[in-house]
Each structure stands twice: as structure tokens, then as C-alpha cells.
Amino acid sequence: MRKKAVIFDMDGLMFDTETLGYQAQRELAEELALPIAFDFDYYLKQVGRSDKDVMPELASDFGDAELAERFLRKMKKRQTDIASEQGLPIKKGLHDLLAFLKAEGVVCVVASSSRRREVCFYLELADISQYFRYQVCGDEVSFAKPDPEIFLSAWKPLGIPKEDCLILEDSLNGVRAAFDAGIEVIMIPDLIVPDDEAKAKTTAVLPDLHAVMDWLKEK
């Protein structure tokens, strides 16, 4: 296998946290009596973006920056509570892929738009922290995806040529960031249906992480 490192997104790629996030936001939208029609399409606009990136739009839509900040803060807590109480939905093939990469000596890192606190919580809850050399998180970079900064920050410490690295993403913004970073990317769609742009900027669009393992075995 020619790849020496794999950079993983987290939300929607390793875990079905997008569904948890939508559940948490729907509950809070009612609890806080938000002045908007909160539905799934509205939630989709946030997918693959950092809190810092989403905040100005929420503040504008709510007409209240403090309410937007409180909403996001409460949503993160509600989401982790749901994961703790109901279990964390792990994406098909994750454990098998990580075990395969470890056996092959492939370095794995995380590049997630979520804050470090959430990233560490979910990795520990899923008991997979040991598979990753390090994480680069959304609160540690200046620019959110689709800016390539987070992937370049994840790649640089590896000391490995870009052509020997692979990024796994589920969102269009993540695919854009990977493409602009100049690193090969595979999309495993979650909530976002791949369009022509996604197909043009990816090496492959695959149904799940098991398929990624099969793809790597053929290389």
C-alpha cells in the first residue's frame, strides 16, 4: 500500500454526530424559542463548518449575538449528553479500517472542525484515541474549512510527502479544503449528497469506511 498517512475528518465521517447535533438543536430551538423556522435544511447549512464560521449567520438570523452564542454552547453540551446517554453512533467500518491501518504501519491523525474538547470526548467515548498520533481541531486554526489551513496543519508535522497522504471527508467543504491543500481526498457522503464539484475534486466517492479499506488494499 502506497499511502503512509491518513487524515480523518470526524463529524459525519467517523461518527454520526450530525444526527446527534440535529437532535440537540431541535430540542434547544424549542427550549429557547428561537425566532426562526428551524428545520433540517437549516441545520444542513452548518454541516462541515466550524462554530466560529457559523456564529455570524446564527447571530444575524436570531437577531441576537448572545442568544446565538448561548445556543451553540448549549448545543455542544446537549449533543455530548445524548451521546453519553444513548450511545455514540459509530460509522460502518471505522474499527476495521483503523485496525487495518495500524497493522500496515500507516499514521493516522484527525483534522476536525469541532473544538478539541469535543474531539477528545468522542474519540475517548469510542475508545479509539490510541489509533491517532495527534489531532488538529477547529479552535486551533484561524480559518475554517473550506480553507485548507486545517489539513495543511495536520499534514505538515507528519514529514511525509503529500502524495503519500490521504484525506477522508464527508462534506463538500472538507473536500474543497483537501483539494486546495493539494492532498488526495476520498469522500464518504453522510448528509451531503456529492455533486459534480465533489466528484471532480475527489479521487473516489465511496459508500462507507469498509470500502475505503478495500480501496487502499488495491493500491
Automatic annotation (TrEMBL):
Pfam families membership: HAD_2
Gene3D superfamilies: HAD superfamily/HAD-like, Putative phosphatase, domain 2
Name the UniProt record assigns to this protein: Haloacid dehalogenase superfamily, subfamily IA, variant 3 with third motif having DD or ED
Species name: Trichococcus ilyis
